[in-house]
Structures are given as structure tokens and as C-alpha cells.
Task: structure prediction
Amino acid sequence: MNAVVALAPRFQRAGGRDARVTTGLAVTAFAVTTGLTLSVVGGLLGFASRAELPVPEGQGDDRSVYVILAWIAVVLLVVPLMTLAGAAARLGVARRDARLATLRLLGATPREVVGLTITETAWQGLVGAVLGILLYAALLPVCALLPFQGTTFSVAELWVGWEGFAIALVGVPVLAALSGAFSLRRVSVSPLGVARRETPKKMTWLRAVVAVVGIGVFMVVSSVAGAFGAAAAAALIAALAVGFATLNAVGPWALGLVGKVQLRRATTPARLLAARRLLDDPKGAWRVVGGLGLAGFVAGALAVLPSITAIDTSQDPQGAVLMDDLVTGGMVTLVVAFLLAAVSAGIAQAASVLDRRREIALQNLAGTPVELHDSVRRRTVLVPLLFVAVGSALTALVMFFPLLGLAAVASPQGPLMLVGFLVGGCALVYAATETSRPLLRSVLADTVVRAD
Amino acid sequence: MWGTRAARQPGGMNTATPRLSARGLVKRFGSTTALAGVDVDLHNGESLAVMGPSGSGKSTLLHCLAGILPPDAGTVTLDGREVSRLSDRERSLLRRRRYGFVFQFGQLLSELPAIENVALPAMLLGTSRRDATELAGRWLASLGLAGMEGRRPGELSGGQAQRVAVARALITGPAVVFADEPTGALDQATGHDVMRILTETTKAAGASLVVVTHDSQVADWCDRRIEVRDGLVVGATAEVPR
Result:
């Protein structure tokens, strides 16, 4: 093994409490990602296996609809899942960059530096994958309680199989390593990569153009979907994925705009700092609140459910089951999306506190009030959070308009459900970010400010 | 520029009542005694270098004098008022209102441009953003940083960043400025430049200065120096000649 890469475990131990916390957060994120992905895939496999059974006599076959809906749920959850995995790989990036830049200064080659990072993140990914499989196994009996198609799933139906575990054990470390290596570009280019923090490059308005085009594509595809016949569902799912990716591209740009407005209006130190922090790294802010944005998008899309389920199905018991299942599936998707958003936000906030620990501690020594750090920490999450949640839900309502018309707002339950979910989701994410408060207090309590 | 609160305060050195005074300071960390009964006086407008090898207790002395750490025994008085028994919150307020700080590096907030880094302490004391920014601009210009107001800390050289830190420490008109190894991350020439600016500007602002350093050439910039070893002051000079 290469001498530098062989140092990985020693670096890990030498990092002390910060390194342990960062590693713990990363492993947790990979575990949650793995566990929930396996659960979602298990659900998809469950519906697919039921679709292959012979149709009971005298019943219509709507089982392919369930498979399509399960695929839609997978598409809706895949971006939040990937966001969480990406956030995990970037955890503690400032501390790691500083350490690796030092190694570069000491003569380590870019390849050795990348190798060290890959070793570290792949190891975290592997431990996370193992714990994720255990989480999936723990969730299995809970998922099996959910009633679909008139009956609950059996554990066997939701079982992803040993090959599913093998894919997770190989795939998660590989994805973690790739993501970690990708986040290292600065250090690989220059040993002084972390010594310089410059005015961030502006994100172009092209992102907004991409967003408008993406939303337009979805609206056009969904309005003419009927003409595609059997391919309509596939086209819609693909368009949904495009819309989702679009939201991910435009989110940081929109948050940058919010930061500019905030900066212009800032009159207090907390507002000034929160605005500058948002402007400085809108992509980082999106990583914290983006999960909720995507969940808000899901909530906006699902606001149509009360109107759909209000259709009279007294003459069609199978249709009634489908409507009930639509609500159950929608709720499960939303709950998972919000949980992912909360975990992403909590982990990203904790990582941010650790990455800024020296700066925060020195400000504290100079008499900066603790309340300022708390207020800035809260503002950097809350303002983008509200903007993103509401903005994403509205985007979803607009995007689904050609497909569903005014169904989302036709009955009062739709908007009420949407508002309820957004408020609940924001509260959940806020609570998750508050878990970093004790960490901030412990950083402030440290009067001995160490070099990184 | 010097029309700040500090500039209106009386200057002068070695007046009868010291501005900052410590008596019998003791500080322990577990079984280690970092300070074993230290007496120090600092007069108005005076600069004091605290020297000593690593682990001698000089940084702990600075932390106790500055109200960062409460001493286990002994007293610290500022303008005749005992400040060593204040609560944590009161000590934070004291540091914000009466003291300025210059650290080795890293005290500037990386996301703020230089002018906002300097303006921030004034804003924390209630000055409006516009007035604080205007005042910060004048401080930066007076320290030779005109035209660099919009630069981030990462876009400044080490010497420029320390000048910004000096402006940041002085903008609120502090009674005492504490500098912990302010030239530790700089080359010798830049370090001398920073020390010249730090001592001259602090004196002109009517503030006293405590510099912790292990470098005797840095200490030469101060009016007086004390040597700390094993938690005790073992040597002191009066009026170091330049």
C-alpha cells in the first residue's frame, strides 16, 4: 500500500473529537441513505412481484398502475437520497482540505491525496452501508404493516435479496469515494487550495433559463401525454425526473438571489452575517435546505390527492382501494422525503459548525455574543428554508397544472394538506438543525483555540 | 480618524492608577498550575510585551487579563473596577465593549469583505450599519488599505489581513488591546511593519496594549516587557529602548 494512503487510519485517530463527530455524522448519513433506499426499492419490488401474479377471477387488473406509482415514488425520492449521500461525502471538507493541503505542501502527489480521501470516504461508506442494511432490516416489519391493494405486504415481498445487499455494500462505498474525490478538486490543483478563500464566482442566470426550459418540458410532455399511449407513463416519469433535476440546478441560484436581497436590507450583525454566508455559498445552503425543497415539490404534486380521492367510487370497490392506496403511498413518500430533508439539514449544520470552529471560537474570545452565532446559524437555515419550501411547492403546482388542472386547489383539503405538510416539514428540519446547538456551545466553551 | 471614543480619552503613561492591574493571579488546569501568583500593571497608553517559552503560562496570563478565563485566585481590575469575578456573560460584554483583540490569524470572518469585518464590532455595539461602514472605511484608509475594502480575507496578504485585524480591534475605541502572537504567521519584515502599526495606532487611539510573543524583536516594539516562566513573572524591564 502507498505510504501516504496507509496513513489514513492514523489521521483519523489524530483528528480527535472533531474527526470522530464528523465520521459519525458521515456514517449516519450513509446508513440512512442505504436503509431508506433499500426500503424504497423493496417496496418497488413488492409491487412488481404482485403484478406478476395471476389476476383473480372477476377483477380488473390495475396492478401495473401500482408499479408506475412506485416508480414515481422512487424518482421523487432519488434526488433527496443522493443529496444526503453527497452531503455525507462532503462532511468536514474544510478540515480535511486543510490537512490534505498540508500534505501537498509536504510533497504528497495529487494522486496520493485523492487516494487518501477515497480510502477515508469509502471506509465511511462501507460502515454506513452495513448499518444501513441493519436499518433496512429493522424497518422491514414496519413497512410490512402498510396496507396496499387490500392487504399488507409480507416481509418476503419487501425483501431485496442478498444481491440487493451485495449491491449496497459495493455501490455505497464506490459512490462515497467518487463523491469525496470530486469534492477535492481544489486541493488537488493547488497545495494552497485552502489557504485562499476568495470572492465566490457568480452563478449565471443561465440556471434560471435551464429551470424555465425544464419546467416547460414537463408541462408540454404532461399535457400531450395521452397521445403517447403506453409510453405516456414512462415519458411522464422521465419528465418528472427532468423537473426534479431542474429544481436542483436552479435552487442554489435562487438562494443566491435571496442572499443579495437580504444583504441589501441587513441592518443588524446577525442579518449581515447570515446574508453574507448565504451569498458566499448558496450551493452549501441548498445542500442544507434542498432536501426540504424537493420534499416541498413532492407535497405540491400530492396536493391533488384529496380531489382525486373525492371521486365517487361506491360502484367500484377496486377503484376505492386504489384511491386509498394513492393517499397511503403519497403520505409514505412525503414522510420519507421530509425525514431525509431533516437528516440532511441536521448533518450539514453540524458539519458547518465543525468546519468553522476556529473562526467561531476566536470571535467568541473577542466578545462576540453567543446569541449572535445562534441567530446567524438559525437565520442561515430558516430564511432559505421558508423560501425553498414555498417556492418548490408552487413550482410543483405550476408544473402539474396541464396534467391535473385546478384539482390541487379544487377542494379545500388540497391546499390545507399542502400547508400542513410544509409547516410540519419546516418544523422537522428546524428541529434537526437545532441538534447542532450543543455542538456550537461546546465549540464556544473551548478557550484553547487550536490550529486546524 | 482619531475622533473615536478612545481618542477622546486621556492618554499618557505611568499615571498613578494603572488602567489594568492583576494581583496574585493563580490559574490551574487539573494538576497543572499555569499561573502561580502573577502581579502585572498596565498604564494608560502603555504597551507591554509578555514573553516566555511555550507552556510558560503567557497565553493563560493574557486570557485571564482579558477576561477570557476567570482566575482561580487573585484579582484583575480595569480602571479600578474588579472584573475577574464577573459572570461569563458580563466578561463577554466587557471584552466586546472595552477590549480589542488581534490573534495570530483566523479572526477575520472569511465570508465578509475587509470593510465589514472591521465594521462588525461597531455594529455589535449598536452603531448603525451605515455609520459603522463609514468609520471602518476611514480606519482602513488610515492603515494604508484604501481600495481594499471589498476584498475577502483570502484575497489579502498576511500583513494586510493583520492590518485589517488591527482596525477591527480599534474601531470600538477599546481601553486595552490584547495581541496573541500577532506576527507569528508573518515573515520578519512584514511582522515589523505590523508591530509598528499596532503600537503606533494603539497609542494614538489612547489604548493600552498587551502583546504575547516569544520573539524578542517583536517585544522590542513595546514600552516594557515581562518574562513568564512556570507561571511566574521572572523578569521585567522598564521602558525598552527602540
In short: Chain B touches chain A through 32 residues (CB under 8 Å).
